[in-house]
Each structure stands twice: as structure tokens, then as C-alpha cells.
Amino acid sequence: MTGDDRYDLGHHGDREVAPGLLDLAVNVRNDAPPLWLRGRLERALDKLGAYPDQTKGIQAVARRHGRDPDEVLLTAGGAEAFVLLARALSPSYALCVHPSFTEPEAALRAAGHEVHRHVLDPPYVLGDVPEQADLVVVGNPTNPTGVLHEGLERLARPGRVLVVDEAFADAVPGEPASLAGRSDVEGLVVVRSLTKTWALAGLRVGYLLATPDLVARLRAAQPLWALSTLALTALETCLARGPVAAAAKEAQALAAERERLAAALTGLGVEVSPGSQAPFLLCRVPGRPAVREELRTLGIAVRRGDTFPGLTPEHWRTAVRDADTSDRLVEALASVLAAPSSP
Questions:
Q1: β-strand 115-119 against 206-209: which pairing, if any?
Q2: Short-list 304, 298, 259, CA closest to 278
Q3: Mean of the per-residue pLDDT values of the chain
Q4: Shared domain check, 68 and 26
């Protein structure tokens, strides 16, 4: 189906947040970068008198994924990557798989493209897509469902650009479904971000991996010095061997806490979308569309679901944090569900 205006594609979790609320609406894992990263950023302040140089950042990405440097484009977060793709490409049949991160569709529409939606039913596992699609955008793992699609390279074919948003890939232990290291898949573009793992939403740090010719086209559409010196410092630091190993260890702990929280929510009668491999859970309480607002009155912000094509006002997404935070959510939700539903 083609898109419509029933969904607020520009709505993001940060709009749910307010002072005094426990923020479970945004998928950034921590409130601030770790101290060792903050130290590197503070030391980089002395370099702000010079224009930023991307050379080391590009090399860091290339090493991380076993790619050639000319297959790497650094971007101001994943959002810039989607804007550049929308401006540089001329698809005849652009397809966005939903429910998913809405920024790619918004960027395509802003660039004047007609967008077709491929809306998945629960459990939101992707099968085939229309053959005529010459641009396909899919998240992996997908936001907000957390579904990890296996074998997405099967969707590649001559004449098609396949864009895979891997913003949460490093939250999956071992990254088994990641295509970031695949330079052999025709038309593949992989978009990655450091925002979520290292609490860098305000610094805007991301990159994409694609063929050298497409990277060159996108770079030509990008402003000069797209990433600041501080963003480049964060990139070089977080993609070094030690931080990558630390992220992998954290992914294991996150997976265990996600399963514990999912079980607790299910025990309260919440429908938790199965199979999430991401640092969040998609939830629904049938017949209780006011749950999100009721949690808000108890000091907890979760992300509304009805701005994602395919979801309803009953859906909401919660981030997965530490055990104490999970317990606070479960306690508040038990209180909400014990009370009569709002009219």
C-alpha cells in the first residue's frame, strides 16, 4: 500500500520525555557517555580550532567491519544517511517495511518520492517484498518490534538498492544477522549509529557502508565537514577493539534483562511482541489504550506506538535498562492494570 497521513512520521521518543519522568521512551541505553569516553571528548576540545579531518574515523569504520575505506561514508547520525539516500537516489518504486523507524520514509517523502508501505502482521517477520521495488528499506533488528530478520541478503537483486538500518545491531550478542561486513551483496547499503550504545544522541555520530560509487554520490550531496571533531573523536574511540568488546559484553547482559522484563510484563497480562533482539520491547494491553498515559501519571514515560504504520493506540514501546528500572516499570504497570480502565 502507499502511505497516508494517518501516522505522525516525525514523532520520536524524545517528545515523550519531560523533567521528572523516568525515560523509557528513548532507546539510548544510558543518560550520558561513559567517563572514559567523556575524557577523550574533553581532551579533543583543544582541536576545535582546526577543521575536522575524517581520515582516522573512516579507517576506524573500515577496520571494524572489514571494508575498504572507499566503502565508508560518515554521517551525522543515521538520520542524515536516510536524507542523503533520499536526495541522491531516484527510485521508481520505493518500499519501506513497517512497522519500523519512520525517518527513512519521511526523508523519502520530503525529497518528493512516492513511498509504498509493506506492513507486516504480528509477529512482524519479513518474507518476500514486491518484485518491482527498486528501493527497499528495512530495520534489523527492527524498531519498535525488535525482530531480527535472518538472511536479508536474499532481497538483493540487480537494479535494487537494499537499505538495512542496523542502528541496534550491536545490541544483539554476536551480531549474527549483520550485513555490515558484506561487500559482495549487490545494491546493499548498511546504516549504523553509535547513538544508542554510547549515549551520543546529542553528538550525532553514524555511518553507512555501500559500494564506492554510491558512497561517492552520497558524499557529493553531503555538506563539507558533516561530522564535528568531537563526533569523529567519539567514532574513533568507540570503534576501537576495547570498546567494541565492552559493547558485546553489555549486549549479553542486556539480552538477559530483556528476557526477564518480558516475562514479568507477560505475567501481568501484557502482550509482548515475541522475539525482540533489541534493547526495547513492543507491548500492548488489549482494550487498554490509556496505559501509556496512566504510566505517565506515575512518573514513567514510554514511547507511543500509534505513530508507527501498522500499530495502534494500544501499542507502546519500553526501553530495557537495568533491573531496578525494570522493576519500577513492572510495579507501576501492576498498579495501572489493577485499576479500572479509563473511559
A1: unpaired
A2: 259
A3: 94
A4: no
Reported pTM: 0.94
DSSP class of 2: B
Q: Residue 241: count other Cβ atoms within 10 Å of its Cβ.
A: 9
The range of the structural domain enclosing residue 328 comes to 13-31+245-336
- Residues paired with residue 283 on neighbouring β-strands, in sequence order: 272, 316
- For residue 135, the model assigns a pLDDT of 98
Q: What share of the chain is helix, strand, coil (3-state, %, to 5)?
A: 40, 15, 45
What cell does 295 get? Answer: 504510566
Q: Same domain, yes or no, for 40 and 152?
A: yes
Residue 186 resides in a domain: yes
Q: CB-based contacts of 115: which residues, under 8 Å, 6+ apart?
A: 2, 3, 94, 95, 96, 105, 108, 109
pLDDT at 341 over 90: no
DSSP 3-state of 52: coil
Same domain, 66 and 20: no
Residue 107 belongs to domain with CATH number: 3.40.640.10
pLDDT band per the 50, 70, 90 thresholds, residue 343: low
Dist. CA 273–CA 324, nearest whole Å: 22
Whether 117 shows a pLDDT value over 90: the answer reads: yes
Give, in order, the Cα–Cα distances in Å from 115 to each of 88, 136, 152, 189. 15, 10, 20, 18
C-alpha atoms less than 13 angstroms from C-alpha of 138 in its C-beta half-sphere: 31
- Domain assignment present for residue 200? The answer is yes
Give the domain CATH number at 321: 3.90.1150.10
Q: Is the peptide bond before 104 cis (omega within 30 degrees of 0)?
A: no
| Tens-digit pLDDT profile for residues 205-217 | 999 999 999 999 9
Segment 271-311, tens digit of pLDDT: 999 999 999 999 999 999 999 999 999 999 999 999 999 99
Prior bond to 289 cis, omega within 30? no
Domain presence at residue 120: yes
Which of 183, 209, 242 is the last residue in one of the domains?
Answer: 242
